[in-house]
Every structure is written in structure tokens, then in C-alpha cells.
């Protein structure tokens, strides 16, 4: 029997090796396949597209924000992997209310991602020490923490446009940037409500909503003086148009793989090393 505490503070019990796993999170899906193969994965979301070339054979049960709860329940899963941020609270609560064994994750640092990978392995009845990606991340994290730059590169990475949006220092992506030798120029900038307040046009109102993803106008980017701009291809697919829009003297603007910046699963070690190499060049 395996017992783990999830991000909601719930005690999740997996009484026997789970043979029917549903993943509602793209990075979790990739991790499950890396650890136990496709045989135990019975469903995924439409956005779970890795590992390409084999994941296509697994049935889909909606998107990350609109899971087909009835379809998941009909599969009688032993374990469902969800994320507090990526999946809708409505869907997660509906699955739990119907007695489905759901484990909810929410790693906001690379160290937390490592701990979650170890937890995922245990939930799948796999010894974490036998998962090479876990060992690789442990080594990469230790090396990065020991070599944090005294003068980090000032980095800006948007995640959306219309309105422009980015992440603050309380996110996995911001911690990854830090460990790779950068500093997120929006690390200290919380999201304000309503939108007019976020854009500096009105007074902010008290809120209990998530404030980790500020919206802004490009003029604010200039005041924060980034040296490097990283334009990911997800969740918004930035391209050459935005690259030209953000170019400025003394600033390097690059298109990058969004999975490297935001996916916290088995690709994290390689992502950290690739981002560190990019920022040091």
C-alpha cells in the first residue's frame, strides 16, 4: 500500500499497483510513460502529446480544462493524475465526489518537481532510484544550486498576448530561470485586479484569486530592462512577429520550446541544462 499527501492536503491511498491510470496533465503523461510504459495508461487529455509516435494510441477524454468526467469514471481508473493549476477545480472535485482516486499535484519550484517525480514513481509502485530521469534531475538541481550566478542574466518570458501576460517569482518557470543563471524581471510583480489595475490605469481591488500571472503593457517591459527575451511556443505560440516586436538594442530575443520552460516532469533535467546553456551563450 502507498499513501501520499497531495497538493490539496488529501491523503491519497493506492492499495495496489495501479494498472489503469488516467493522466489529465501533459507533463504527467510523459512521466507515466517514461516510468511504466503505455500499458498502464488508459486515457489522456487532447493536450497530452508526448511522447510523440506512441501516445497517439491512447484514448483522449477532453482537454485539460474540460475533462469528460463521465468518460473518466467509465474507465474505472485505479489512479487519476491531476494538477491544481492545469485542471479545472470543477472537474477535479467532480471526480473526487464520484469516488475516483485522484492525486493532485502543484510543484512551483524545481525542487518540488523533483519531489513530485519521486511521489509519482511511488504511486505507480516504481522505486524512484530506478528511474534515471529522477537521478538526472537530482544531479542537475544540485549542480545548478551550487553554481547560481552572482550576476544573473535579466530574463523576460511572456506566456500570452492580448493581453500580454507573464509569470512572477512564485512559479516553476521562474525558479527554472533562476537555476539556469537568470533572474525573472517580473519576479516581484503580482497580478492586480481588475485588468485596468494590472495595466496601471486604475486602483487595484482586494482579491483572493491567483496573482502569480501579471498582465502588462509592453512599456512596462522596457522599464524592467531585460537582457534576454524567451518566447515560448506554448501556451501561446509566439513567433517571428512577436520577436520583431520585442527586439531592442542590447537585447537578445529567442524562440524556445515552451515544454522546456513549463513541463515539470521527466524532461526537467534536460530542460534545465538546455536553458542554462542558452543563457550562458
UniProtKB/TrEMBL annotation:
Instruction: Specify whether Acetylation is a keyword of the entry.
Output: no
Signal as a keyword of this entry, yes or no, is yes
Instruction: Look up and give the organism this protein is from.
Output: Sandaracinus amylolyticus
- Write down the PROSITE patterns for this protein, in alphabetical order: FE_B12_PBP
* Stretches assigned to the Fe/B12 periplasmic-binding domain: 20-281
Q: What is this protein called?
A: ABC-type Fe3+-hydroxamate transport system, periplasmic component
Key words, A-Z: Signal
Lineage, top-rank taxon, reads Bacteria
The record, for InterPro entries, names: ABC_Transporter_SBP (IPR050902), ABC_transptr_periplasmic_BD (IPR002491), Vit_B12_bind_prot (IPR054828)
Pfam families assigned: Peripla_BP_2
Q: Which segments cross the bilayer? A: none
Amino acid at each position: 500500500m502507498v499513501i501520499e499527501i497531495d497538493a490539496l492536503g488529501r491523503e491519497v491511498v493506492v492499495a495496489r499497483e495501479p494498472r489503469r491510470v488516467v493522466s489529465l496533465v501533459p507533463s504527467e503523461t510523459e512521466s507515466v510513460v517514461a516510468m511504466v510504459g503505455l500499458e498502464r495508461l488508459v486515457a489522456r487529455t487532447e493536450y497530452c502529446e508526448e511522447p510523440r509516435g506512441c501516445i497517439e494510441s491512447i484514448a483522449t477524454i477532453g482537454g485539460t480544462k474540460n475533462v469528460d468526467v463521465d468518460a473518466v469514471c467509465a474507465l474505472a481508473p485505479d489512479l487519476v493524475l491531476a494538477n491544481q493549476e492545469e485542471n479545472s477545480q470543477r472537474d477535479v472535485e467532480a471526480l473526487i465526489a464520484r469516488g475516483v482516486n485522484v492525486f493532485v499535484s502543484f510543484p512551483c519550484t524545481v525542487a518540488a518537481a523533483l519531489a513530485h517525480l519521486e511521489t509519482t514513481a511511488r504511486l505507480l509502485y516504481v522505486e524512484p532510484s530506478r528511474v534515471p530521469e529522477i537521478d538526472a534531475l537530482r544531479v542537475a538541481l544540485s549542480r545548478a544550486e551550487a553554481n547560481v550566478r552572482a550576476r544573473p542574466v535579466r530574463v523576460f518570458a511572456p506566456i500570452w498576448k492580448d493581453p500580454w501576460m507573464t509569470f512572477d517569482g512564485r512559479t516553476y518557470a521562474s525558479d527554472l530561470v533562476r537555476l539556469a543563471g537568470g533572474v525573472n524581471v517580473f519576479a516581484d510583480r503580482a497580478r492586480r485586479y481588475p485588468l485596468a489595475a494590472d495595466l496601471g490605469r486604475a486602483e487595484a481591488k482586494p482579491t483572493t484569486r491567483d496573482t502569480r500571472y501579471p498582465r502588462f503593457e509592453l512599456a512596462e517591459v522596457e522599464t524592467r530592462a531585460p537582457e534576454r527575451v524567451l518566447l515560448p511556443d506554448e501556451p501561446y505560440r509566439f513567433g517571428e512577429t512577436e520577436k520583431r516586436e520585442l527586439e531592442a538594442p542590447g537585447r537578445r530575443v529567442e524562440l524556445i520550446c515552451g515544454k522546456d520552460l513549463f513541463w515539470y516532469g521527466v524532461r526537467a533535467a534536460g530542460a534545465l541544462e538546455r536553458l542554462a546553456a542558452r543563457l550562458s551563450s
